[in-house]
Amino acid sequence: MKARTVLWPVAPVILLGAVFAGSTGIAIDDIVRGLFGGSDPAAQAAWRTVVEFRIPVILQAFCVGGLLSVSGAALQAVLQNPLAEPYILGTSSGAAFGFSLAGAAGLAPFFWPRTLLSFVCALAASALVIASGWRRGRGLSPLALILGGVVISAFLSAATIAVQSLLTPFEFRNTIGLLLGGFRVLPAEELFLTLVPALMAGLILMLRAPVLDILSTGIPAARSVGLAAGRELAGVVLLVTLITALTVPLAGIIGFVGLVAPHLMRLGGRTRHARLLPAAFTAGGLMTVAADALVRQASSLGQLPAGAVTAMLGAPVFIVLLRRYGGFHDRM
Amino acid sequence: MIECNSLAWRAGAFALGPLEYGFRPGCTVILGPNGSGKSSLLALIAGLVRPDSGSVFCDSQDICRLSNKARAGLIAFAPQLLQAPPGLCLADFVSMGRYRFTGGSGRAIYENSASRTAVRDMLALVGLGGCADADLSVLSGGEQRLAILARALVQEADWTLLDEPAGFLDYAHNAVLHGLLAREKRAGHNLILVTHDADFAASIADSVICLRQGRIIHQGSALDAANPEILKEVFGTDFLRTTAGRILQDYGHPS
Q1: Percent of chain A with pLDDT over 70
Q2: What value of ipTM does the predicted structure carry?
Q3: Does the beta carbon of A268 lie under 8 angstroms from any beta carbon of chain B?
């Protein structure tokens, strides 16, 4: 059975569950009465909470998780590395560092300058990691790439903490919220400015799906069949970096979704990217919504970021994949 | 005609060339021991590796200055090893050889009817028509080799470059390979093959070049690939020619 057929029954359960999950306990019957236009104060209040707080956060978590998952799947193809994703490759840490620099420079209220700074730092991090994995005449070394990503990511996370603790004004975002991301209600304008270009970048990746199929057989093979492989690789890295640079300032770093969701969707048979990417988007979105709902339900235990949940669930999966694919000679 | 002009390439302690050679239409075999630079030379001719100095010209065009698409029309390349992620199916993999005809997002390699026909016919020709939908990673080593060959041939380039095409093949698959190569020759397609198998070279070549330690030490016809003296010079070990003209390694002890 294909793993993606599981999405259909799971999706409504997670989405409905996420509507009812929350720190302010709202009775289900209040929400239902609100939905059908109940006029009593309890129903009105419940309905307003759902529409003004929960649904925007769920939508946001779904889009961010879906985009991270698509980014991971695309990177895994173009780098021929099953462990690649924006978090592991240091792109997310680069974006977080750029965002905290923008905060330190007083640019936090300005959308375009701070997004540009996140993008530049995320791109520098991606480029540095890819360069550290590149071996002349032999192409990309899978393990060198991952090790480069881990080291750069650790460095940039430390640098982010340094910038935030030394330079950033008190009222700016807290460090934990940036390094272990989560979702909160944001102004509609900010959501629009962030998610529309990010979703467009994700859509472009989906439209280039057959190119990802070709790139997944290796750069030399892709070039020999006539694909401008270097340009396509750079294009995919740019799109993924753009998605990361847009979503990290919004939600912080949500790790491992880009790793786990595409691999779940690959279970159970052959997959062209034209089918894989939409499935990975849905799976990544649902996983992130579920993590966020879990966090909201459990927040009586303290402020647990959604990124902590995805990291705690994702890290063991990474180890399993590393044991399966990370041999000395295996390329995939 | 593919011309190598003062072609030189170096990786660590290994140096290839400088080489001077013109590949004539027909089938040329590059023969030599392991590590003599055969595969490096093939990758240079395919334009996949940039030379340190010198150049490769195909039909008077510098292959390093051609676009990938233009080069793919001149030269198809079948590497030694398959690289494919789990989950990629045989027919999709072979379809990638059609990319030069469609370009763009590549959607057409799966959907375009010319492409589908070419892929189906080629799979039937290599005897893999029955496993078009199979996951590449579960196919045997020999079947994967034939898949690589099929991808290179559906590209319908002027020249097809094959790196150790007979490697990993059992006798039946080897017969399929020979049949295919003979068919390509008859159809007037140009082939450049790399191998260390002298008997295979002698059976298929129009021209032979012998490589040792990155240099061409001999060039001639298929007869030279069946000459034990030349082979001893190339490989540093003894060979026998049977009365039927086949070449066997001489192990130096009675069997």
Answers
A1: 89
A2: 0.91
A3: no
Domain ranges of chain B: 2-85+156-249
Can you list the domains of chain A with their CATH numbers? 61-325 (1.10.3470.10)
Cα–Cα distance between B239 and B233 in angstroms, integer?
11
Q: DSSP 3-state assignment of A201?
A: helix
Q: Which of A4, A135, A225 to mutate to test the interface with B (most CBs of B within 10 A)?
A: A225
- Which are the contacts of A201, defined by CB distance < 8 A and separation ≥ 6? A67, A239, A240, A242, A243, A246
pLDDT of residue A268: 58
Distance to chain B for A207, nearest Cα, Å:
7
Nearest CA in chain B to A82: B85
Distances (CA, A) of A288 to A199, A226, B200: 16, 38, 57
Q: Say whether A270 and B88 touch across the interface (CB within 8 A).
A: yes
User: Average pLDDT for residues A105-118, to the nearest whole number?
Assistant: 87
**Residue B71: how many CB atoms within 10 A of its CB?**
24
In B, which residues are within 8 Å of A207 by CB distance? 105
Which of A210, A224, A229 lies closest to B105 in CB terms? A210
The CATH number of domain B2-85+156-249, selected from 3.40.50.2000, 3.40.50.300, 3.20.20.140, 3.30.70.2200? 3.40.50.300
Angle at A195 between CA A191 and CA A198, to 5 degrees: 155
Alpha helix positions (H), chain A = 7-20, 28-35, 41-49, 55-78, 91-104, 111-133, 142-166, 175-179, 188-207, 209-215, 219-224, 229-251, 257-266, 273-297, 306-325
Residue to test with chain B: of A208, A213, A224, A330, most B Cβ within 10 A: A224
- For residue A110, report the phi and psi dihedrals to the nearest 5 degrees: -100, 115
* B200 phi, psi to nearest 5 deg: -60, -45
How far is it, in rounded angstroms, from Cα A115 to Cα A197?
A: 12
Cβ <8 Å between A80 and B155: no
Both tokens of B76, joined, read 């198809």
3-state SS class at B227: coil
Nearest to B88 among A211, A216, A223 (CB): A216
Alpha-carbon dihedral of residues A44, A48, A51, A52, nearest 10 degrees? 170
Of B86, B84, B64, B89, residue with least CA distance to B74: B64
| CB contact A61 to B (< 8 Å) | no
Judge: B133–A221 Cβ closer than 8 Å, yes or no.
no
Longest dimension (CA), chain A: 72
Whether A217 sits inside 8 A of B93 (CB atoms) is yes
pLDDT at B255: 61
Over its C-alpha atoms, chain B yields an Rg (Å, rounded) of 19
Model confidence at A332, in pLDDT bands (50, 70, 90)? Answer: very low
